[in-house]
Amino acid sequence: MLLKQVDAYIMALQNTPYSWAAELLSQLEMRFRPGSGEQSQFPCVFAQNAFNRSNINFLLVPFDHESGGYRYDILLSGLHSYLQDAATWDGDVNTAEPLLAVFEPMATPQPTSFYEKTFIDSLQYLIDGDREEWIGDIPLDPASDFWTMCFAGTQLFINVSHPNNVNRLSRNLCDSLVFVINPRERFDAVAGDNRKGRLIREQIRRNIDLYDLIPRSPYLGHYQHGDLEWPQYMLPDDNEAKPMTCPLRFHKAKGQ
Predict the structure, then answer these.
(1) How far apart are CA 79 and CA 86, in angstroms?
(2) Which InterPro entries is this protein grouped with (predicted)?
């Protein structure tokens, strides 16, 4: 279910099928608006700004216990609706509305492989169910320069958070899987390949070094310079591990 920030908190506190989100939303608030006990502020100033302005959109993705899988159809329809609204963005950073897709947590702790599989299954479902053709000049191979995830005719950046990131705290927003999704044009607008954009990116990465228990990932790069996008989506919890290999399947009939 796609909800504005205020509505998400109201619904989660009510006795609804989405009441599982109440504790997760409380944890997210502690991340974005930490108390005096936190050693530093959340590194992404844009996320903090969006939260403080109640500009975050939440997409709550339930787990269907009968079928034994997540409701990826809700993810698809919610993301489609979000991108329709995002297409009218006026370019002001103070009105930008990131999307947080929050997945219902399991009753018991899960291994990292569970979150990796859910991430891959989610993207594959979006690719298979996309009603728009793949953007023509974006390659289909995630190992290629300038590949990026596309859906509904929009280039996306997806930041994956999960609770097994005990060192990389900036990628551990709450006790469940979370996708932070933004149209790529917003990165180009506020942190693009210009002096101001480079300064903003470097400041955020210095903030990451202060916030996380380990230095920033060596896979954090700059898309416009040809640095690979795929490894930046779901970072390993240490700086020695290699990123997950991309198993996504693309249909040649779409675009290329």
Answers:
(1) 10
(2) Uncharacterised_YqcI/YcgG
